[in-house]
Amino acid sequence: MSRTISAVPTPTADPFAMSFALAFPALDPVAIEIGPIAVRWYALAYVAGLVIGWRYVRLLATRFSSGLAPRQVDDLLVWMALGVVLGGRLGHVLFYKPEFYAENPLHILYIWHGGMSFHGGLLGSALAIYLFARRHGLSPLAVGDLVACAAPIGLFFGRIANFINGELFGRVTEVSWGVVFPGGGPLPRHPSQLYEAALEGLVLFALMLVLAFAARADRTPGALTGAFLAGYGLARIVAELFREPDAYLGFVVGGATMGQVLSLPVALGGLALIAWARRKRAP
Known about the structure:
- By secondary structure, the protein is mainly alpha-helical.
- The protein is 58% helix and 8% strand.
């Protein structure tokens, strides 16, 4: 759909200063509706991320010596879907709104109302990969490396869905590409969802692609997983500088958001895993 351009006042000391901002496109969060059944863009984003990621991992399994047969990737898809959804939901419950869900436990099941945490999904995925690898007699790090290469695909689609839903928008800004979001008041804001789609999705996917095929980091089990964790953590910390903190949390520690607080150990853990993998490979 097309966007309209509107002149709106921006947060500046000059009361007469104006800048052009993009009005949020009239996009329905429901992509398909058939009778009582409504399929939301957010659900389609998860499906797209899992399905395209599954096909990509099948391709990587034929190129790398991970021990993972392409047919086993089909089984891995089921494990990953459970890990992402259950971990993502529980992460949101525990990291972001523990008091609310403690008082309203049935709302934990209301996934269609939104509320998924990447960091919870990461923990759920790690557990799913470990259990899957143990079941099939594979190296969890080798399997994790393949999944890490595909993970940015899901992140990209998820952030695009956040933008369509008009949620998780950025802070008030004066930049000319600022967007006036329906739930963000009259002032233009950074389209931080698109920043995250670019950093966590496109840039991180390209980085993993180069490391996997050009640098052949797949020969060092754990290195690709570490690169993904470090890359995501850094991308999320940077993107959160433009993202509006959650209204029910605000800034949590020294001007940092919850996303930054949770992403710092992810980035450091990724760097530590890279160092460990390189030392282990060294003769």
